[in-house]
């Protein structure tokens, strides 16, 4: 018994010595930076700044020092060089094992970057080397800049663009020095509500920075994980290289297997991994396995086919059960190779105040409820987008491959809500300023926001610029798709010129997100409705589609309702989009996809205009809704009859026409439709 007691005491002593040794070898982390590191604007920086919260996350094996200095620049010739501040000397004296540097924000000052930008990388390398001199084994982590928001007083005078240039310089520094690279922008780019002064994060914002830093230091990103959309029963895109990306702990090997292919990779220090598979052939019943040494994700009943995203506002959201063709559209709706991912809000944008709990979930970007991939059935179809359902059925019937459609449309949402914040920053930054009251939003939109959130509150809303990109597009994590169908514009028809800018930015934003500069983007032109700006808006949509590469437009003005912004006839809209996809995306040359299109208009005799058209075969003998404008801009009706590939218009001989237009009434009764049943768009053309 004494011998056993002696052994126990010896073990206890060894453990005690070991614990002391561990304590003596605690890892020292120096957080070097400016006012964001220091904790400016926080009530208690010693406990609330990101380094303090980082220390709590890392635990007793780490000692975290805050060496932030408000206003400090990385540039040695800047207006307040960090290397000349006492915090720098203190950081060196700390002799850190890990140094995490977040500098560069103040270098965006016009006193600094324009004059000394060429010295940024060399100055940064010198700073890194100074820490290596006190500890040759120091681990260096560089943080790309946290967000600077449009309300910042220097944003438009250079700070916005210079910030991106500085981030590139930080990347270059990391590459040259071998330092690790993380981003302090990523955790906050979609949470600008946590940066109330446009520069300094709140306590919650600082916590997000601390979590980012802790994960980078420990390499613990929660193990292997995939975005929600990666599930059993999903559809993966066929026919082109398939990129699959996810998260895992830093340095873990990830193995991906499907349909006889196997690829391996290793995660970077940010927990990111990605593999690209050779194009897959259409099939169903496949199994996708993604594994690390410690965890395996197995997705079964996976189909390989065509995947499309359906998005926009209420006319895309409009459910099949509300449409005029509901009964016939759900006949034979059961199809295991037609699969739906129906993303619905947790909190609907109704004309009622939201509860505090609802406002909280919206504030935290938890707008959409969890969902699952579902195989087509009458029940699933009835609650799905009527337009997207009919589009998917046409592709399924014509291509004879599995089809998957993701729908995340939100009624009332503006184009600006779907564009990433970085794109808006660099092109239309004023849209963020006082966004609930500025003139970028229609009055009814502002009223709806106030009803849901309450007036004079800081709460977020799905109509906020960039909100739906953050909540609904970024979480898809670039899930591979063939293209987009888009039905939206009602909430932007008050400002046509702005929409022309926003729509181009939207397409560019999503193409960049999916790393596909030719990503097909098929839109629906607004229907007919008694709203004065709609004819001009429809014509603007037509011109945008004609001018942009791989952008198609389905006309719906013949399907409108006088006083209802939600016409119930949706089947033709979905099928018209399907025809565009078949012809323009899938190369089915025999699929007619366009109605009559104007080419030129010329005076052929007094009181007569000859209008040359494309796709004009089979138009009615008596065509309505044409007008001509005189020199003063007054429009008068014109009679129109077909003559071969042309239309002959007659009008008052005393009028000298300058313009010709068709379907220009808000609620158009134009009947210019060709033999394929496809209508002409609202248009305006000069008479020459």
Radius of gyration: 30 Å
* Coarse shape: globular
Give the biggest sheet: 11 strands, mixed
Task: Give the averaged pLDDT, no decimals.
Answer: 95
Number of β-strand runs: 25
Q: Could you estimate the helical fraction of the residues in percent?
A: 25-40%
Structural class: alpha/beta
Q: In DSSP terms, counting alpha (H) and pi (I) runs of 4 or more, how many helices?
A: 20
Strand content: 15-25%
Distance between the termini: 113 Å
Description:
- The protein is an alpha/beta fold and 688 residues long.
- The chain is built from 20 helices and 25 strands.
- Helix content is 31%, strand content 23%.
- The strands form four sheets. Strands 6, 8, 9, 11, 12, 13, 14, 15, 16, 17 and 18 form an eleven-stranded mixed β-sheet that branches. The protein has a seven-stranded antiparallel β-sheet with strand order 19-20-23-22-21-24-25. It has a five-stranded parallel β-sheet with strand order 2-1-3-4-5, sandwiched between helices.
Comma- or semicolon-separated keywords:
688 residues; alpha/beta; 11-stranded mixed β-sheet; 7-stranded antiparallel β-sheet; 20 helices; disordered N terminus
Helix-strand layout with pairing:
Elements: H1 2-24, E1 27-33, H2 35-38, H3 45-48, H4 50-58, E2 62-68, H5 86-94, E3 98-102, H6 113-116, H7 120-134, E4 139-144, H8 159-177, E5 180-183, H9 203-218, E6 235-237, E7 242-247, E8 253-258, E9 261-266, E10 272-277, E11 283-292, E12 295-312, H10 314-317, H11 326-329, E13 335-342, H12 356-363, E14 373-376, H13 378-382, H14 386-399, E15 403-407, H15 421-427, H16 443-453, H17 467-473, E16 483-487, H18 496-513, E17 521-524, H19 534-547, E18 551-554, H20 571-585, E19 597-605, E20 608-614, E21 623-629, E22 635-643, E23 646-650, E24 659-662, E25 683-686
Parallel strand pairs: 1-2, 1-3, 3-4, 4-5, 6-12, 12-15, 12-16, 13-15, 16-17, 17-18
Antiparallel strand pairs: 7-10, 8-9, 8-11, 11-12, 13-14, 19-20, 20-23, 21-22, 21-24, 22-23, 24-25
């Amino acid at each position: 018994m004494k011998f056993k007691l002696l052994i126990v005491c010896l073990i206890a002593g060894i453990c005690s010595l070991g614990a002391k040794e561990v304590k003596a070898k605690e890892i020292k982390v120096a957080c070097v930076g400016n006012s964001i590191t220091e904790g400016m604007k926080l009530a208690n920086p010693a406990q609330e700044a990101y380094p303090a919260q980082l220390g709590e996350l890392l635990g007793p094996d780490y000692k975290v020092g805050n060496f932030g200095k408000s206003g400090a620049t990385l540039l040695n010739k800047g207006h307040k060089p960090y290397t000349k501040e006492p915090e720098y000397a203190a950081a060196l004296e700390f002799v850190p094992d890990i140094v995490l540097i977040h500098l560069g924000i103040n270098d965006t000052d016009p006193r600094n970057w324009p004059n000394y930008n060429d010295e940024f990388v060399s100055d940064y390398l010198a700073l890194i080397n100074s820490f290596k001199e006190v500890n040759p084994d120091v681990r260096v982590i560089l943080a790309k800049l946290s967000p600077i928001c449009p309300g910042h007083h220097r944003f438009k005078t250079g700070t916005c663009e210079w910030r991106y240039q500085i981030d590139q310089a930080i990347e270059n520094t990391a590459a040259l020095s071998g330092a690790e690279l993380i981003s302090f922008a990523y955790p906050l780019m979609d949470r600008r509500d946590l940066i109330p002064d446009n520069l300094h994060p709140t306590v919650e914002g600082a916590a997000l920075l601390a979590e980012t830093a802790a994960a980078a230091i420990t390499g613990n990103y929660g193990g292997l994980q995939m975005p929600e959309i990666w599930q059993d029963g999903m559809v993966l895109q066929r026919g082109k290289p398939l990129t699959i990306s996810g998260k895992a702990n830093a340095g873990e090997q990830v193995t991906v297997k499907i349909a006889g292919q196997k690829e391996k990779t290793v995660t970077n220090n940010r927990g990111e991994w990605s593999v690209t598979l050779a194009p897959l052939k259409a099939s169903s019943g496949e199994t996708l396995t993604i594994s690390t040494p410690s965890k395996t994700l197995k997705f079964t009943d996976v189909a390989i086919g065509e995947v499309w995203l359906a998005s926009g506002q209420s006319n895309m959201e409009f459910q099949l059960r509300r449409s005029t063709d509901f009964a016939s559209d759900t006949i034979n709706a059961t199809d295991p190779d037609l699969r739906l991912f129906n993303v619905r809000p947790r909190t609907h944008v109704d004309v009622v105040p939201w509860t505090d709990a609802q406002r909280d979930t919206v504030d935290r970007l938890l707008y959409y409820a969890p969902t699952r991939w579902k195989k087509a059935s009458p029940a699933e179809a009835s609650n799905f987008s009527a337009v997207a359902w009919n589009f998917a059925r046409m592709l399924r019937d014509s291509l004879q491959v599995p089809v998957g459609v993701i729908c995340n449309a939100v009624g009332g949402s503006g184009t600006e809500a779907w564009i990433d914040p970085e794109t808006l920053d660099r092109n239309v930054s004023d849209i963020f300023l006082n966004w609930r009251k500025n003139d970028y939003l229609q009055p009814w939109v502002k009223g709806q926001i106030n009803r849901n959130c309450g007036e004079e509150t800081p709460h977020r809303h799905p109509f906020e610029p960039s909100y739906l990109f953050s909540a609904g597009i970024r979480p898809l994590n670039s899930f591979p798709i063939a293209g987009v169908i888009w039905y939206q514009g009602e909430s932007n028809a008050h400002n046509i010129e702005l929409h022309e800018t926003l729509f181009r930015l939207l397409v560019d934003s999503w193409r960049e997100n999916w790393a596909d500069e030719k990503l097909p983007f098929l839109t629906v032109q607004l229907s007919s409705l008694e709203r004065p700006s709609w004819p001009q808006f429809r014509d603007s949509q037509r011109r945008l589609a004609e001018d942009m590469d791989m952008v198609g437009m389905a006309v719906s003005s013949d399907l409108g309702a006088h006083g209802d912004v939600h016409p119930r006839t949706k089947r033709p809209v979905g099928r018209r989009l399907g025809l565009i996809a078949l012809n323009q995306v899938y190369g089915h040359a025999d699929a007619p996809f366009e109605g009559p299109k104007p080419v030129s208009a010329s005076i052929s005799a007094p009181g007569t205009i000859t209008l040359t058209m494309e796709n004009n075969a089979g138009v009615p003998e008596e065509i309505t809704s044409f007008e001509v404008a005189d020199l003063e801009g007054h429009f008068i009706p014109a009679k129109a009859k077909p003559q071969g590939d042309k239309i002959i218009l007659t009008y008052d001989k005393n009028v000298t026409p300058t313009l010709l237009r068709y379907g220009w009434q808000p609620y158009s009764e134009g009947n210019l439709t060709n033999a394929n049943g496809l209508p002409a768009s609202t248009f305006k053309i000069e008479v020459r």
